[in-house]
Amino acid sequence: MGRCQRIVRLCLTGALGGLAAFSASAESYPSHPIKLVVGFGPASSADVLARLLARQMEQKFNQAVVVENRPGNSSMLAADAVARASPDGYTLFIATVANTLNPAQTNSSFNLAGDMAPVALLGVVPNVLVAHPSVPANSLKELIALAKAKPDSLTFGTSGSGTASHLAAELFNSKAASKIVAVHYQGGSSQAVTDMLAGRITLMFNVAATLAPHVAAGKLKAIALAQQKRSAIMPDVPTMSEAGMPGFDAGIWMGLLAPANTPLEIVEKLSASANEALKSEMVQAALRPQGIDSLGGGPAEFSDFIRADIDKWTAILAATGLRKQ
Predict the structure, then answer these.
(1) Contact at 8 Å (CB) between 226 and 155?
(2) What digits encode the pLDDT tens for the residues 297-325?
(3) Closest Cα partner for 256 from 296, 228, 225?
(4) Mean pLDDT along residues 102-127
């Protein structure tokens, strides 16, 4: 056997050995504890969902699943840490809409679908469009007509410039061809809700779980849900699409990702486990009072979802001048 043939044979042997080790590693996964990183603090919606998922994964895999909270920079610190972790399936990330909004807003090179491996679309915290009772509109079509006839009579309360509630309002303006002015509140939405109840602002997109009691008490009017399917917490409220604005989706979604180049067999095993967990009655029962709707979806579906979300918000940010160059 010539020298070149021996080199080729050694290379092939090494490659086949590596492939065998890779297959064995994926087949035996997981063989030690998994870390699930959340970019927000304890008791946040992402944290609640992560801990429910971790409990189900522990039972499925017979391995500990530890939830680690690493808040900072709108969850981007956690995303960066997981993106740089070893692609072996033992460090995972609970992403949210913040991880597509932030890069789109700052013109960052980080791309959630490209720099990480989408595993499963998990759930959504639905936003709802509400109006103060003084607003003479009880449906989305009536509201759009009012916005065009009397644009100066309406205002959107938001939790700050560039936040999810603000961009939902700008998405509304874009689709309705309206120019309702956004009024920004710093430090969260609590003051905006207070002013909304007092009639100092007239419209708001906010978390359905927060606003549902006020709607039930007749202090606010629910116009439509800002997502593609109805919510368990407000089952009688139509979606924006049902109410006449097709394709409107501004819910606060959450999903599971792994570092890029994680073996496909491991990604698929994790995806199957996550989707199975979402169907658990225990998980469903725990999510309802939190105002979280389960979604579900595999790697390909979640990847498409992320790319569409990035494109949507990038376009809205560019149109409103909020995208940093």
Answers:
(1) no
(2) 999 999 999 999 999 998 888 888 877 65
(3) 296
(4) 90
DSSP-derived letter for residue 44 is: S
Q: How far is CA 129 from CA 83, 143, 181, 223, 266, in A?
A: 35, 11, 15, 6, 39
Point out which residues pair with 253 in neighbouring strands.
Answer: 124
Q: Report the b/e string of 94-105 with b at 16+ CB within 10 A.
A: bbbbbbbbbbbb
What's the pLDDT tens digit per position in 6-29? 544 544 555 454 444 444 467 789
Query: By C-alpha distance, which of 39, 47, 42 is closest to 98?
Result: 39
Is 254 in contact with 122 (CB distance < 8 Å)? yes
Q: In which residue are the tokens 């469903």 written?
A: 284
Q: Dump pLDDT digits (tens) for 223-260.
A: 999 998 999 999 999 999 999 999 999 999 999 999 99
DSSP 105-121: HHT-S--HHHHEEEEEE
Q: Which residue has the tokens 């504890």?
A: 33
Q: How far is residue 49's CA from residue 12's CA, in Å, rounded to a whole number? A: 45
Give yes or no for a contact between 285 and 107, defined as CB atoms under 8 angstroms apart: no
Hey, what are 50's tokens?
A: 């992560």
User: CA torsion 82→56→225→231, rounded to 10°?
Assistant: 180
Q: What is the pLDDT of residue 321?
A: 81
How distant is the alpha carbon of residue 71 from its chain centre?
A: 16
Query: 152, 126 in Cβ contact below 8 A?
Result: no
Place of tokens 């969260």: 188
What is the enclosing helix (H) or strand (E) of 36?
strand 34-38
78 DSSP assignment: H
Taking a C-beta distance cutoff of 8 angstroms, is the pair 283, 56 a contact? Answer: yes
Single out the residue of 224, 203, 212, 236 nearest to residue 140, CA to CA. 224
